[in-house]
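Possible regression after last week's pipeline update?

I re-ran a chain I had predicted before the update to compare outputs. Posting the input and the new output here so someone can diff against the archived version. Not blocking, just want to make sure nothing changed silently.
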Amino acid sequence: MRSFLKGYWTSLAATVRDRNVLLLVLIGPIIYSVYYPFPYSPEVVHEVPVAVVDLDNSSLSRQLIRLAEASPDLGVTFVGQDPAQLRRALWDGDIEGGLIIPHGFRRSVLRGETVNPVVLGNGAYFMFNRAELLGFAGATQALSSELDRRHELAGSVSSDQAAERSDPVRLDLRAASNPTGGYSTYVVPAVAVVVLQQTLLLGICMLLGTWKETGAPFDLRLRRNRLALVVAASTLCFLNTLYYVGLVYWREDYPHLGEIQYLLPVIAVFSLTAGAWAVAIGSWIRYREQAVLCLLPTTIPIIFLAGFAWPVEAIPLPLRALSMLVPSTAGIQAFLNVDQMGADLLQVAPEILEMALLLGVAVVLIFIKKNWPVSSEG
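New output (post-update):
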């Protein structure tokens, strides 16, 4: 037990003394928590610059333009009558999209015919494109509802009856885990899990690479010392995760529905898994720089395979199987379900079991691996 505790405290002390490792495993997550959420703090895109081409120039088309101008999602920069002007502004980057109201718009509407205004958007920016489509769709829907109410009022019914008939089925959407529909609430809690995992992985691998070159502060040929290194790495991950869940998410006002008795076991299992995973991979690192060269490019693929940026069902089966070898894949789903959606441990049991199995495999690999760094003390 004394040897285990010595290895544990020596591992933590070595992390603090190595400035580059300290920057990765402790300072890096703090810096990330400050600067990454900042650009997305408005959460929702507003006032997307758009243009409108009115080829009908009627009272009804002008009403549609006024409704578009009233939308908080849209910022109508100009109204013209030349589609080429709109396309040129779109290509030049002056606007992000636009609406073309066709000839005969009012006449077709009064005849009861279906009219299809044309919406042009910049598909290169998903958030801009989404806000633009929602803004124009809302304006068109508002105009359609107004026309329905006018038709009902023509039949000698009250205004309340007309409103009820024009909108007989009303959908009230209330998002529990992301009530604002914001980008920061969606992406930061998920990516943060990957950041915690990858910074720990790089730091531990750099530390082991250094020990292979210069010698370890204790004898890693002993299994209890390897286990002490795993626990030390897990402690760092546990503290960083508590910092994010307890302070960063509270500061950024992200949804926080999880109960502490469910959240702490998830944090513990993820931290142990990430620590053992980092040590297992670090055992193959031959020199310090190899950790950065080989492992840094894996971060982006890990994010896309995690199942939040792209639906899990749409990921090919071989890639899904590969993603299960990474702790953050199950960790992200467990954290989002417990912390943001209020799930209990039974509801995230598959993710916890997946991390526990990965933890067991990592510990077995650590125990059977040979050629660990030799103690510098002799």
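Follow-up from reviewer: compared with the archived run. The chain has a mean pLDDT of 83. Marking as no regression found.
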